[in-house]
Backbone:
């Protein structure tokens, strides 16, 4: 009986820990900006966008502590006349990780297999804030008679517990920093 109470207390503490950290600083006024869709020569839709307001005190203190910060970029296309049973027409997500090597005083961005070093945090966050030429889908995949809306969001400084416990404790994600969804109409001339 006592063991069950201790386990419940530990789970409760793990669940409210991110809320305590989030109360230290106010949420970052970050947002997705400068969204631009294009159709390349091979018939694929690509998107460029930037993220403004990444320079946050909480983010910088996390990097200075040596912990890696994971950035998750999500792009989705929704067909506006879709049925209730239909999901997103396109759903893309990818990650980049930024961490600081305190011994060399360098910031390291990991993007897939690529690792790039930066000397200043402003330079590193500038690189993290730009996405250029991300392939969304083949333009012929979209229905020419429909209208589409794109939605883009970036999550950063996600709090993750060991053994994937953050997936089972929904309050853990309340302390994450993220941008609001940026919603734009997809220009129909790109897929017609």
Residues:
């Amino acid at each position: 009986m006592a063991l069950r109470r201790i386990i419940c207390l530990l789970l409760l503490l793990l669940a409210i820990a991110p809320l305590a950290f989030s109360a230290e600083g106010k949420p970052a006024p970050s947002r997705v900006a400068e969204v631009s869709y294009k159709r390349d020569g091979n018939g694929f839709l690509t998107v460029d966008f930037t993220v403004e307001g990444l320079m946050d005190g909480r983010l910088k203190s996390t990097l200075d502590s040596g912990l890696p910060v994971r950035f998750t970029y999500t792009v989705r296309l929704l067909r506006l006349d879709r049925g209730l049973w239909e999901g997103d027409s396109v759903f893309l997500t990818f990650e980049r990780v930024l961490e600081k090597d305190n011994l060399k005083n360098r910031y390291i961005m990991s993007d897939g297999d690529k690792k790039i070093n930066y000397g200043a945090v402003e330079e590193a966050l500038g690189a993290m804030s730009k996405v250029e030429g991300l392939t969304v889908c083949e333009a012929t995949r979209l229905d020419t008679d429909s209208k589409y809306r794109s939605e883009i969001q970036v999550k950063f400084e996600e709090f993750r517990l060991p053994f994937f416990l953050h997936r089972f404790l929904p309050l853990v994600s309340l302390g994450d920093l993220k941008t609001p969804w940026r919603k734009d109409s997809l220009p129909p001339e790109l897929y017609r």
In short: Helices lie at 2-22, 57-64, 121-128. The mean pLDDT is 83. The beta strands are 31-39, 44-52, 69-79, 90-101, 106-111, 114-118, 130-138, 148-156, 177-178, 182-185.
